[in-house]
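Holo prediction. Input below; ligand is glutathione.
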Amino acid sequence: MKLYMHPASTTCRPIMMFIADNAIPVDQQVVDIMTGEQYKDPYKAINPNCFVPVLEDGDFRLTESSAILKYLADKIGSPAYPKDLRQRARVNELMDWFNTNFYRTFGYGLVYPQVLDFMKLSDAKAQELAVAAGKAGAERFLAVLDQHLIGPQRKFLTGDAPTIADYLGAGFLSAGEIVGCKFAAYPNIRRWYAAMQALPNWKSANAGVYAWGDFARGPAYITV
Ligand SMILES: N[C@@H](CCC(=O)N[C@@H](CS)C(=O)NCC(=O)O)C(=O)O
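Structure of the complex:
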């Protein structure tokens, strides 16, 4: 199998960590999304959305980080994607929640508009208001994550062991490293995130986001 990826990509890193944790034989090919390789052939023909990740398994091609995690987990029969109907439905629910409610507000509302030039608004006041709205949206869903989806007892989202929802969710949360988020108001998130960071391949799989954080350091960012 082959994964087209970029080391700093929030949607690739959860897959890279799952591959590493399970020693899945997957070649990884960097697509340089910083220089626009994704918008040109041959990559554009591979994924017309011009996004990483893409997984290739023989002549089967798959886009979408959530779908790729599910495919890989099923391919190796991993308990991280339970077979039981309701347990699987819960994992699917969490992955959809992170992919839509959470990432839309936290990633695209709060983090990226502060660090990606093409997302910044040229009018300073408009930029300030947009980031403030992103922060409010992120806080709404962080509170749900902290108090309801994790809660005071659980180590991981559904119990004592991580599922692919933990891989996806913690990877999306780690985008906050770029602007220096500490999540101080969310003790359950901090505990869960620390448990994910303690897994053996966290540092190597997520090196790209820490490097981005070092590169972005300097301005006083709006954080949570
Ligand atoms: N829904 C897609 C989103 C993928 C995505 O946003 N990829 C970003 C990197 S994290 C990308 O390739 N960006 C390149 C660009 O916007 O030009 C998924 O979950 O796989």
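The chain is about 50% helix and 5% strand. That is the main takeaway for now.
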